Amino acid sequence: MLQTNFLKKQFSNPLVLASGILGLTAASLHRTVQNGAGGVTAKSVSLEPRPGHPNPVIISKKYYILNAVGLSNPGVVEAVKEFIKFKQLCATPLIASIFGGHHDEFGELAEKISAAPIDFLELNLSCPNVSHEFGRPFAFSTEAVTIITKKVKEKTKIPIIIKLSPNASNITEIAKAAEAAGADAICAVNTLSGMAIDVKMRQPILHNKHGGVSGPALFPVALKCVYDICSTIKIPIIGTGGVTSGEDALAMIMAGATLVGIGSAVYYRGENAFNKITDEMEKIMTEEGIKNLEEIRGICIH
């Protein structure tokens, strides 16, 4: 009922762990598969190790999570080792995620990480909480997205996914530029830029002052982005952002998504969130007489 084909790769269900949620160790990714994920996306990696931002880096509320972890990671060399271990544990589709400070860095990273047995490569062009280090996100510029996509395509044969930002006012134009440059798929969306202030302390709560908003509050924004992008391009989309229930996941698919990213739901519903959401999807589909996801994919697009 939930089996999904994405870029010629079979997924047992459309739910994919979003990047940055449970790290990139083989053990943590494998545990996510055991808890029902149809695929996993590792935390974004850079050429060299990064410590990330000083604490506090995250706060959680009823309807949102605000984080400024700062893309902490052990670097591409260690990531490749973990991806090899993961594929020794299971055959579940694995999406690696990379980020860089300039165009050429993405190409170098793509070449290095392609030594790992990954199935797809996500280009994180849209993190909202490292702008003071890397400048304006690449996902705001059609030119930057075009250049980076082409550079990466020159360095790897692995299908690439461009991760876009809901903060971009021209997100459909960015998606079209990525498609034209050779991207195989789009991931929409990353977190929204946000802030929290401690009134008694009279200062921002996060050390970084601002961060990325995820969780249920992001869902309607992400859903609209997926709908708009799917109305514009032909390559498949991973719909990500605030999905916490089976109803949310089916809505993403009705808006045109092929796969559905799951992130903050792990916080709100526990590590077993994937099984809970797929159970809810199957229940709704049975009640509504929906035999498979292809019947409803993009059904809302006119």
TrEMBL record:
The keyword Iron does not apply. This is Dihydroorotate dehydrogenase. The gene is pyrD. It comes from the Bacteria. Catalyzes the conversion of dihydroorotate to orotate. One of its GO terms (biological process) is 'de novo' pyrimidine nucleobase biosynthetic process. Its main location: cytoplasm. Its EC number is 1.3.-.-. Pathway: Pyrimidine metabolism; UMP biosynthesis via de novo pathway. Keywords: Cytoplasm, Flavoprotein, FMN, Oxidoreductase, Pyrimidine biosynthesis. Gene3D superfamilies: Aldolase class I (3.20.20.70).
